[in-house]
Structure prediction request, 214 residues.
Amino acid sequence: MSSTPESSPALSSVLDVVPVMPVVVVKRVEDAVPIARALVAGGLPAIELTLRTPVALDAIAAIAAEVPEILVGAGTIVTPGQAKEAADAGARFLVSPGATPTLLAAMAGTGLPFLPGTSTVSEALAVLETGVTEMKFFPAEASGGAAYLSSIASPVPAARFCPTGGITAATAPSYLALPNVGCVGGSWLTPAALVDSGDWAAIETLAREAAALR
Ligand SMILES: O=C(O)C(=O)C[C@H](O)[C@H](O)COP(=O)(O)O
Prediction:
């Protein structure tokens, strides 16, 4: 992927870009670009930058400007206003831990692809009723894990998921084997200790291992 966000065709599916979506917390804006470069070098050209720190929007903007080969998205969208802020910063997809009607409308209003968070069948059905078929399953491990997603694959075949929350390199394959899972999300690729110490090579190695999971 070498085109700029402006020239890129609309992304049809967030779930099919990488097998593991790196969920990243950035405390220092200057860490954002090296993290993105390490993920790309390891074979994971996508990043979900969580809006959990004051520098998150600036971090998204920096990645969008300096690492155009990565698909940068915004995670932890919990208010309607954050959807527009993330889009304005340069995010190319949005992820929320939950889904209210207002939040769904705000994310849809940006024109970007988005993954609303669901953890029950009724929530998944409510999202499907809005025409959205791709969603996050959060918190995955605490909400029933791969066994839950396996159980709903037949009764709710239209929904495809990115399970996130408590997943590790060891447990990711059990999710990725399911027909209704496109990718899994996880923060294990960018542990705080490696980010704080600037160990980009170690993050690249973790990314390479994750990229090989499928
Ligand atoms: O921030 C969000 O939007 C969330 O929904 C939560 C994150 O996706 C998970 O906290 C990541 O889970 P871990 O891999 O267990 O760290």
